[in-house]
Amino acid sequence: MASLELGVPNTTRTVFRVGSISKQFTAACIVMLALEGKLSLEDKLVKYVPDLPSKFYGAITIRQLLNHTSGIRDAEAMYPLMDIDYSQWYTDDMFKKMLKRQHGLSFPAGEGFEYSNSAFTLLAAVVDTLSGQPFEDFAADKIFKPLGMTQTHIQTGVRTMIPDRAAGYYKRSDGTFENWMTNNQLIGHDALYSSVEDLTRWVKALTGGVWQPGLFEAMTEPGVMKDGTVNQYASGLTVFKYRGLNLVAHNGWYVGYVGTLMMFHDEDFAVILLANQGNYGTQKTCMEIADILLVDRFAEIENNASYRKGLTDNRFNKGVPDSLTGRYLGIDLGMFITFESIGEQPGLRAGGNLYEPSPYAPNELINHHSNQRIIFPEKPVEDNRVIFRMKSAYVDYGRYIRFTELPVDMDELGRYTGIYRSDELGIDGIISEQEGKLVVTVGKESGTLSRFEKERFASGWAAFTFTTKRGSKINGFRMDCFGVQGIRFEKQ
Predict the structure, then answer these.
(1) What domain range includes position 460?
(2) Distances (CA, A) of 395 to 115, 154, 483
(3) Which residues pair with 34 in a beta bridge?
(4) Element (H or E) spanning 79, and its range?
(5) What is the pLDDT of residues 300-316, one digit of tens each?
(6) Are residues 395 and 418 in the same domain?
(7) What's residue 352's pLDDT?
(8) Strand 353-357 versus strand 326-330 pairing type
(9) Do 231 and 351 fall into the same domain?
(10) Where does a domain end: 292, 326, 347?
(11) Do 279 and 260 fall into the same domain?
């Protein structure tokens, strides 16, 4: 239903907020300007957004913004840490001030991969500067109008009218629904509304090679880090294989809406699914649709000698050792995962997701539906506790060790408890003692701290590294979580 209150059904012309599917349109605007010679993807960001501090942002290139290797901290990840609800109003001015408050990046530009909505909001600002017109007008003139995408709009304010828009909802555990809408209008990374019919027009034009020759090829060139590592994220699109077929795709989510757009471009086949239930899993459904409609092609690929050889060469093709089951901790981002055996079939299960031997790399397990990969090192690594690394096309979850919790004695608890201030987030973090455990609260995030090294703890959503001054006295901590690494808190 487009509206549960009014009893209006969804159709292929119903308009949904598409979340991060918006990013490919922002990337297209940038790449079109580059193909016209109006900018170089190696240009520095501060050339077009000069009010950002060069000390931190000066080395970042346009290309690094496009493929999430810029190191710019993610505004969307910072919101809950700043006690801001996703449905609250957040302006471009507030966004810029937040970036200027940062004392650094998550990592030096080009030396890591981390999904950053902030990067695409800044790319929209680059389009503003170069084109001399608002980003939403440029996108309409260059893409929406020429392609007949009459149902596609960018919302720039709470009063913007969006014809045929579906209401956004959240489905509760008891099966009932609640309204879930947002007034957040930051553009570039989000705020685009469209329909299945309009996105079909976009896919046909983008992959057809006639409308803008060279655009699709440029947008699907994977990002490369300074050390030569090739990522699966290109320019507003992820590029990988699904069951042996080349796939270009992107998911989108924002407060009450979720969607997936995937293009099997070699097969002239695409799946587009938009939903107005914010906690619905669209990607898995799209993969299952592809499983049905491309069944003959998948059978052909999976019977191919090279594909079969890839599976045969995988170190886990005859089974996964029982010793790999158990609980693991991501020491970089403080997340936990528990692996369970799946019996005779080679692979592991975690949280309902199946990880099977990968046909693409000899030391990997893969969940085909999510493209999450469990990567085991071929050679011993510097930290010999590391068992594997976890990655997807969107997230590098970092290194995982087998989790053994180290005790915190009762007389130690007072060393850590107290109020900690982050000037970068503009908020206090609180560490308290509850029933003999340390509990951390930062904005809307809270959790019990589990110690895994002398001064390192994990909460399930972040890793905390405490620092000392004059012996054993705690003077602060560093927090690392998805989208926001290296945030410093000082003990008050």
Answers:
(1) 410-491
(2) 6, 26, 9
(3) none
(4) helix 75-81
(5) 999 999 999 999 999 99
(6) no
(7) 86
(8) unpaired
(9) no
(10) 292
(11) yes
The residue from 348, 379, 402 where one domain ends is 402
Give the pLDDT band of residue 418 (cuts 50, 70, 90).
Answer: very high
Q: Could you tell me which of 241, 277, 292 has the C-alpha nearest to residue 262?
A: 241
Structure tokens at 462: 């972040």
Residue 242 near residue 290, CB atoms below 8 Å? yes
356: domain CATH number is 2.40.128.50
Same domain, 326 and 248: no
Predicted TM-score (pTM) of this structure = 0.95
Which helix (H) or strand (E) segment holds residue 311: the answer is helix 305-313
* Residue 7 domain flag: no
Which pairs from 39-48 meet CB under 8 Å and 24+ separation? 39/126, 39/130, 41/66, 45/70, 45/122, 45/126, 48/125, 48/126, 48/129, 48/130
Residues 262 and 248: their CA atoms lie apart, in Å, by 6
**Which residues have CB under 8 Å from 108's CB, separation 6+?**
59, 71
Closest by alpha carbon to 406, among 452, 447, 351?
A: 452
DSSP label of 61: B
Residues in the chain: 492
Task: Find tokens 């004392």 and name the residue.
Answer: 103
**CB-based contacts of 408, cutoff 8 Å, min separation 6:** 416, 437, 438, 451
Residue 441 pairs in a beta bridge with 430, 446
- The candidate with the shortest Cα–Cα distance to 14, out of 202, 178, 195, is 195
Taking the C-alpha atoms of residue 479 and residue 447, their distance in angstroms, rounded to an integer, is 13
